[in-house]
Amino acid sequence: xxxxxxxxxxxxxxxxxxxxxxxxxxxxxxxxxxxxxxxxxxxxxxxxxxxxxxxxxxxxxxxxxxxxxxxxxxxx
Length: 76
Fold this sequence. Notes:
Layout: H1 2-16, H2 22-43, H3 46-68, H4 70-75
C-alpha cells in the first residue's frame, strides 16, 4: 500500500511539469509532494521526510503568492 502512495505521488509531481499554468503546476506538485511526504513517514525515512516537508512548505508559499497576484486569480 505504501508503494502505491509513493507511485501516486511521483505521478502527480511528474504530471505537474506538463502544465503551462504556474498555479496549477504548484498545486499538482504540492499534492504529489504531500503524498511523497506521507510515503517517507510510513517508511520511517526522516531525512527524506524533512526534505519533502520543506519542499511542501515552499510550494504552499508559491501557491499563496500566485493567488495573491492577478495572474493567479485568472488561472483558477
